Every structure is written in structure tokens, then in C-alpha cells.
Amino acid sequence: MSFLSQLSFKSKVGLGLLVSYTSFEVYMHFRTQMVINDRKREFSKLERAEKSIEDVDVKKFKSAVVAGMFVNPFEEYRNQTAFEFMLVRVMELLESLYGNRFELHKKLPHPHDGAVEVEDLLKLFKPDLEQMRANSTILQSCIASGNFDKMSQVPNQSWFKKLTGDSLPQLNNQMLFTWVGQSCSLVQIAGINFLTDPIFGDHLIGKSVGPKRLTKSPLSVEDVNYASNNKLDFVLVSHDHPDHLEMDVAKQLGNSTTWIVPLGLKSRLARKGIFKIIEMDWWDVVDLTPYIAPNGGLKDKYEVVCVPAMHWSGRYIFDSNMSLWCSFIIRRNGETLLYHAGDTGYSKELFEVIGRKYGPSHLALLPIGQYCPSWHQKPRHISPEESLEICRHVKAKYMKGVHWGTFKLSGEPILEPKTLLEELTEKAGTQSHYRVPDFGLTYLYNLKNGKETAVHV
């Protein structure tokens, strides 16, 4: 009597599903490896033919689809199975419970500046909503009148000089950055408002379900609307993971803003009634100027570039990698002002390519947390040390280390990403340019002289 004949019907079904799934994973692995090898051969041919290095770079790191799913065309990446997916979700829940109940209230080994517990170093600051609103109002007035002379004016100069001792730069030379948590930030460039990877809620899955936020969000949707004078221009979504896209926020913002998303996310947002969407593939470039000033007159040209990242997508098992993941670059007149990485693992060659094509970057927002345990996280997230390597590749003038201290989702201690980055930058002498931001604190970048100022209100 054969082994199979001794099994029950349910056991046969289970075994069949297991064999089918395993066969699919093996197929995906080898098909992805074929994509990588084919591109390596094509890359070698183009190099020998002395083709433009820019053309070669783009061809090698195009997005790729296998069996209807997006894949990572990087040798450094390792796919996760459904079993690993489920195991890590359980680990994340346990990490969250431990982080909120115990680690958040741990005593610091060396208390300083009034900070005694871990929680004391995750304090919230009040964002500079008034300055952002004033800038937004001026830009909107210029767009409405078709006269952009006010862009060269200096709003609220006396207030800023009293606060910092410096003169406030002209509106056209201002970039304001406020970190909300995880990879969510409100960035304003010359009065143009960008929200990245929006998440404001206390929990990841629902209003009271899922991993809990370690501290309250320093901003709400209402605050964003106030700061932008009810004109949030763009929302950049790097991928659809719950800690990078909160669906309740998406519903609240709806079609009041323009969404910029990677391939596959347009249909997900459309199911929520959202249709003002720019959907992009890796290396796509979109001129944002007509979206900012539909009637023309804006003297500067703004572009968004969708660049590759090494990550994955999906909110559940069944929708894994059905949409693309990416990073975004905001450029003005050919100069990179903002590099929003979202989530990514480290690929030396990829970031060298991005740096050659779009460096230098004025401000890079790079994730520095969720890197433990390394057997699972390394292909998908970067460590503080790897973030500094990326700064070198993309030639970042300033870097803010984000994606830490918001949720406890991985094995490293809550404060470790911050501590490691500070140790590494102090050793390298770059601590004044590469550091972690404070929650809610608004940082002003003078795009003319390159100076950074933290604005305490």
C-alpha cells in the first residue's frame, strides 16, 4: 500500500497545497534569478558597445514582473515565503506589546537633560504651522493672480530673526521639513506642500487594532490642512504597507490632493473613491509644474522622479507584490532637493546608479530602523550604517534618519537606531548634517546658502 493511499482526504488536500505552493516559490526564485542574469548579460553587451552609462543603468534596474507579481531585480534580495510572512507578523505583534508595556518605560543607563526613561527621548515638539500656512497663502495668491513676484519676498522676517538671530530666506529659497513619525513627513518647498507616506493613527491596522504607536502623532490631518491653507498639493506613497499608507487618512484626504504612487496602487486607491492619481514606474519622470500652477506663470520647473528601491508590497498574504514599491525624488530646475526613500534594503550598485543620475541631494529622508533580526530584515530594510553609505552614494548634503521610534516592530531596542547613528556620525565628523529628527520639530533649509535651522515654536 502506497504512502498516499494511507492519507486521509484532508491530509491529501493539505499535502497538495503544500507541494503546489512550494513549487510556485521555487519557480518564482529561479525566474527572478533568470531576470537578473539576463540583465547582467545585457549590461555587459551595452558596456562593450560603449553605450551611455545612463541608458545602461536604467535598463539594468527596470521594474520586473514574474507570474503577475513584481519582483526585486537585485542579487542582494531574498524573497520571503508565506510561512516567514506569518511568523514575522506574530513577532511584530509580540515586539509591539513588549515595546509599549515595558521597553518604552525602561530607565536610561545614563539619564541626561531631564530624560530618565526611553519615552523621554521620544518627546513631541510643536510644528511651525503658522510659517507653513503663511507660505502656502502667498504661493496660492501668486497662482491666483498669475504674478509670482511675491515669491522673492521674505515673510515674517522680524519674527524669525528674533528667534534664531538669522534672516529668514526668501520664500522661493525655503524648504520646511517636519517629521510626523515612521516615514511620514510634511515637506514644504517654496510654499508647495508634500506629505510623504501618510500615517497619523495610534494603531497600524485599525483605530484600536494592531501594533500600537509609541507616542502620539505630532500632526493630524486637520493640522496638515491648516498648514497648507487647505491646499495639500501632493501625497507621495512609496508602497502600500500599513505603516506607510493609512487608509483612514487616504479617505479623509480623498481627491483634495494629488496622489503620486507606484504601479498597482492606483486601483487600490480608486476602490476608495480616489482618482486624482499619478501612477509611476521606476525611472519615470513627471513634470509637476502644471499641477502646481495650472494657468502657468511659475518660473521654476518642478519634477518628481520615481526611482527603484529594494523592498516588497502588500497588506495581506494574498496581495503580496501585486503593486510596486519605490522611492521618490523631488527636483527643481534639474536640482535634487528631496530624496524620500520610503523603505529599502541596501544594494551598493543601485544607490551608486541613483547618485550618478540624480545626485547630489539636498535632503535625504532615509529609514534607519527595523533591521533586526537580520536574517529577515536585511534584504528589506537598512541599518544606520547602511544609511550613511547611501548618503555617500547619493551625495546627500543633509540626511534625516526616519522609520524608527514610532512603532516597535522589530528586534532592535527602540533607541538603538538613534544611538548608533549618533555614534557613527560623531566618529565621521558628520553629526551636524546626518542625524535623527525630533517628532514634530520643523526644520528650515535655506536652499540658497544650504543652512539648516531647527525652528522651535
Automatic annotation (TrEMBL):
A Pfam family that the UniProt record links to this protein: Lactamase_B_2
An MF annotation (GO) of this entry: zinc ion binding
Gene Ontology annotations for the cellular component aspect, listed alphabetically: mitochondrial inner membrane
Gene3D superfamilies given in the database record: Ribonuclease Z/Hydroxyacylglutathione hydrolase-like
One GO BP annotation of this record: N-acylphosphatidylethanolamine metabolic process
Domain Metallo-beta-lactamase: start-end pairs: 193-404
UniProt xrefs under PANTHER family: N-ACYL-PHOSPHATIDYLETHANOLAMINE-HYDROLYZING PHOSPHOLIPASE D
Protein name: Metallo-beta-lactamase domain-containing protein
